[in-house]
Write a structure and sequence with these properties.
alpha+beta; three-stranded antiparallel sheet
């Protein structure tokens, strides 16, 4: 199902943020605030403002989710948001969204109308707005504890192994490789050491002639071994704070 329409297109103009009872208070044109309240992807005002936790750039939720279908980088600064699941590292920015709605008259009502039309055209039930009541002090305290901000997306159960990739160095004569920016990776236990090697090669931009030795504890790992097999074979010494620690080094091929 396609997503409801996102940010309302904005137009250059001299609309003021708000009227003031005091004539001496300066009035700023709305377009001066555009860099802070518009989505860089759709160029409309932010709707369901969603912030990337790695770099704090904010977009419409529907825009950034669509962007992550084909790229794992931030559209603004090009930083890698997450190696495989960038949606893990975005969070709703409700405070910024409230600011946008207060600055743009009728925007919230317009978006609500658009959303209702979207669901009605498809024969779906329109979601009801969340009603906020005023409970007593005891209930408020319980709600704050229960409503601790959680991740927007739940980690899929198939990604059941957390890795710590520890680079121990390169053999003399190997140069020109990039540092491994992300040492922590969550993957499926069915992945093999060969998959880990390919991941390292890609991220460090290694030469095809360079070999990667992967070690867990005192065991040199075979490329065909799965991560689950490694974890069960090596045991507790393979784990550090719940992470499977894999050490790897770069070596040159031996010539017979």
């Amino acid at each position: 199902m396609s997503s409801p329409p996102c940010g309302l297109r904005s137009h250059e103009g001299s609309t003021h943020v708000s009227d003031s009872d005091s004539e001496t208070e300066p009035k700023l044109p709305l377009n001066q605030f555009y860099p802070y309240i518009r989505c860089a992807l759709c160029c409309g005002f932010l709707i369901d403002a969603t912030t990337i936790t790695e770099c704090l750039h904010t977009y419409c939720k529907s825009c950034i989710v669509k962007h992550f279908f084909y790229s794992s980088r931030c559209p603004t600064c090009n930083i890698v948001v997450h190696q495989s699941q960038p949606l893990y590292n975005i969070r709703p920015d409700r405070q910024l969204q409230d600011i946008v709605y207060k600055m743009i008259p009728y925007l919230e009502e317009y978006e609500r109308e658009q959303m209702c039309n979207f669901y009605k055209e498809r024969g779906l039930e329109v979601p009801k707005p969340v009603m906020i009541t005023s409970p007593g002090p005891v209930v408020v305290k319980r709600q704050r504890r229960d409503n601790t901000p959680q991740s927007v997306f739940t980690i899929p159960p198939e990604l059941d192994v957390s890795l710590l990739l520890d680079f121990v160095g390169a053999e003399e004569g190997i140069s020109g490789y990039k540092p491994l920016e992300r040492r922590y990776v969550r993957v499926s236990g069915e992945a093999t050491i060969r998959h880990v090697e390919l991941f390292i090669r890609r991220k460090m931009e290694l030469s095809p002639t360079c070999l990667v030795d992967v070690v867990c504890g005192d065991h040199l790992l075979d490329p065909s071994q799965s991560l689950k097999d490694v974890q069960s074979a090596v045991g507790e010494e393979a784990l550090q704070d719940g992470l499977l620690v894999l050490q790897f080094g770069l070596i040159l091929p031996t010539h017979s």
